[in-house]
Amino acid sequence: MSSFVAALAVGPIVLDGGLGTLLESHGHDMSSSLWSARLLLEDPDAIRRAHREYFDAGARVAITSSYQVSHTGLAAAGFDHADVERALHRSVELARQAREDAGLGADEAWVAASVGPYGAALADGSEYTGAYGRTVDELREWHRPRLAALAAAAPDVLAIETVPSLVEVEAITAELDGIGIPAWVSVTVADGRLRAGDDLADAFALAAGVPEIVAAGVNCCDTAEITGALAALRASGGGLPGVVYPNSGELWHAQERAWSGSASEIAAHAGDWAAGGARLVGGCCRVGPDQISAVARRLVR
């Protein structure tokens, strides 16, 4: 059993916060279609320092900068297959280096290789609708090379993030079956359902059917969605631990590539989420080190 899976059975583990938005707050231009993947290629030390900042704040899982890295997405920006493979491996290595920089061992902090949905590569906000027009087989084929490259980099866990539809959950869970690396599957929701309108419990039931999947839940959603999502996870009957990392509560406008609204308080809910079955708790977009530090103070005794 991996140390990550063993720790998951013991009690809550604190995730990091939004990597791309932290880099943005440091003055980096994140307006390109590659999001944080651009810095992965051009300024990897900035990413390593951001991971370290979250570790120093109390996070014990660093989610890598590979969310928007895909073979099709980088090909459109002029990069070849070998560039993509190197970028995916580098994303895992940078998180490992940050863990070492923070003085943490491999049995007390972990690297989660981020796998974003198909819509993330389109860079048009469609991960929040799931309106791709792609079949399960097409999505399996698209995800396969990136999953293989990240698995070869040997992260502690694969973080399947922001999945908006049951079709894509089905595709990804099929590809994870037999991959040999622990994984969590996290969907994005609105009004208690996947963004594409699918039933949340159906998505969690699919996840529970794959031995490699060790947790399931939601991310990049409003905090108000979390309690219902954890209830749906329990109702799915799979017995998986929960993973929850909502965004700040501000609204993302994909066309303008800008945020509006005010932030919610993540840490105030962390204890209730843990009591409801969450074992991985952190934040997504616009949740920074200060909020992660507050979550750690609530959950770590």
Question: Which terms summarize this structure?
Answer:
single chain; 301 residues; alpha/beta; TIM Barrel; 8-stranded parallel beta sheet; two-stranded antiparallel ribbon; 13 helices; 12 strands; globular
Walk across the major sheet and give the strand order: 1-12-9-8-5-4-3-2
CATH fold-level name: TIM Barrel
Count of strand segments: 12
How much beta, percentage-wise?
15-25%
Helix fraction, binned, reads 40-55%
Number of helices: 13
Domain Hcy-binding: 1-299
Cofactor: Zn(2+)
Pfam families: S-methyl_trans
Keywords: Metal-binding, Methyltransferase, Transferase, Zinc
Describe the structure.
Residues 1-299 form the Hcy-binding domain. Its cofactor is Zn(2+). InterPro entries: BHMT-like (IPR017226), HCY_dom (IPR003726), HCY_dom_sf (IPR036589), Hcy_S-methyltransferase (IPR051486). There is one protein chain. 53% of the residues are buried. The chain has a single domain (3-299), classed as Alpha-Beta Barrel (TIM Barrel), CATH 3.20.20. It has helices at 3-10, 19-25, 37-42, 44-57, 71-76, 81-101, 118-122, 136-152, 166-176, 200-208, 226-235, 267-275, 289-299, and strands at 13-14, 61-63, 110-115, 157-163, 183-187, 189-190, 193-194, 213-219, 242-245, 251-253, 258-260, 278-281. The two termini are 24 Å apart. Helix 4 (44-57) runs parallel beside helix 6 (81-101), helix 4 (44-57) runs parallel beside helix 13 and helix 6 packs across helix 8 (136-152). The chain contains 13 helices and twelve strands. Strand 10 (251-253) and strand 11 form a beta hairpin. It has an eight-stranded parallel sheet. It has a two-stranded antiparallel ribbon with strand order 6-7. Strands 10-11 form a two-stranded antiparallel sheet. With 301 residues, it is of the alpha/beta class. The protein is globular. The model has no long low-confidence stretch (mean pLDDT 91). 45% of the residues lie in helices and 16% in strands.
